[in-house]
Amino acid sequence: MKALIANNLVKYFKTPDPFEVLKNLTFSIEKGEFVSIIGKSGSGKSTLLYLLSTMDTDYNGTIEINGTMVTGKTQNELAAFRNEHIGFVFQFHYLLPEFTLLDNVMLPALKLNRKSKNEIQNRAVELLNMLDLKGLEMKKASNISGGQAQRVAIARALINEPTVIMGDEPTGNLDSKNTQIVFDIFKELAHENGQTIITVTHDDDFAAKSDRIIELKDGQIILQ
Ligand SMILES: Nc1ncnc2c1ncn2[C@@H]1O[C@H](COP(=O)(O)OP(=O)(O)OP(=O)(O)O)[C@@H](O)[C@H]1O
């Protein structure tokens, strides 16, 4: 089953001058695949991820995620779709610094409001354990290391059991040890849980070890 199908994606920026940043991209990604999107600075990686994540709706072409056509949905429908299907991990983790790690992880699930607070808390504790953060649940997010914070951000991205996890430079801020830890977590999520990982990276080693590389050059796919 396909986790994502992108057909004829075209994206223009109108300012300062009209400029075609993504030029007719067509590709698909399988469920449980761990894909790295690479390319030189300015090649269009972040722009593409922004489209795939349904955050940017101003494009031509179509995007289907897990059999759902997301192109054409309203902003409210997309917000609900994202909360349920997509987990995000960014270079900077955007945790709420004054909240505990546990609260940070629980928040998206409380927002989704599908499970009881107790169930959510149990799952959050489980995820923090899985990410080797046992015992730190009640620590404030402002008081942990960058590598730990990135793992909390991953736990938060996983709390609603997303089918697709999207990362924009998820290891961009990490040393090699923590980069390896994050890589191993992604690999396990893809290969053992069947979750699909789509991540933009500048790290060629990271990309080479993932299942597949999609390489952009000047807004076109030159390798997939
Ligand atoms: N909001 C915008 N308005 C106009 N041009 C933009 C906008 N955002 C990005 N661009 C341009 O689109 C091109 C692609 O940008 P994008 O950020 O997608 O590249 P990238 O491959 O992710 O780069 P990097 O590796 O540096 O993050 C660049 O030339 C950039 O200057």
UniProtKB/TrEMBL annotation:
Pfam families in the cross-refs:
ABC_tran
Segments forming domain ABC transporter: 4-223
**Which key words are in the record?**
ATP-binding, Nucleotide-binding, Translocase, Transport
Listed GO molecular functions?
Answer: ATP binding; ATP hydrolysis activity; transmembrane transporter activity
Report the leader peptide range.
none
Q: One GO cellular component from the entry?
A: membrane protein complex
Source species, domain of life:
Bacteria
* Gene3D superfamilies, per the entry: P-loop containing nucleotide triphosphate hydrolases
The text of the family note is: Belongs to the ABC transporter superfamily. Macrolide exporter (TC 3.A.1.122) family.
**Protein name (database record):** ABC transporter ATP-binding protein
Query: Species lineage, top-down?
Result: Bacteria, Pseudomonadati, Bacteroidota, Chitinophagia, Chitinophagales
